[in-house]
Design a protein that fits this description.
This protein is an all-alpha fold. Helices cover 80% and strands 0% of the residues. It contains eight helices and no strands.
Length: 158
Amino acid sequence: MLTVEDHALFKAYYQNNSSYYIRLLEKYLEGQKHSFNVSALLLSVLFVSYRKMYGWLLMLYLINLGGSILIDHLYLHLELTDDSYRAAESVYGLILALIAASFTNSIYIGRSIKHMQQIRRSTDDHEERLEMARKKGGVDWVGPFIILILIFFVYDQF
């Protein structure tokens, strides 16, 4: 069970949609560590960067890159048709989106707990803790904006 201070600190950390994440945090602390995030399914890398989950963003990128290289390799060496290639890409994209949607919440909640432990160790002052929670957590519109620019730039090249 969260204390009043815990609730305030996590609310400052999560900022947007904090009540949703605090409910997930309480379930996480009770042992229910996995949940499905529809926003992560539909927006994937945009959502992950919005929540400042840059390590998870890099992991998703590397998984996507590895799968794309594998599909390209199969396309070239097995002489797949263009339709088979597009189908394989679509199925792989769906699988990756489902992975992101299945793990993003538990990674985010676990990360918030670690950040909160760091914040608590660094100061006893409640106001200072709140400010640190806002800075460590929260949301960022710059990351999704940069990703959108990169996506448009890459698609413009093809």
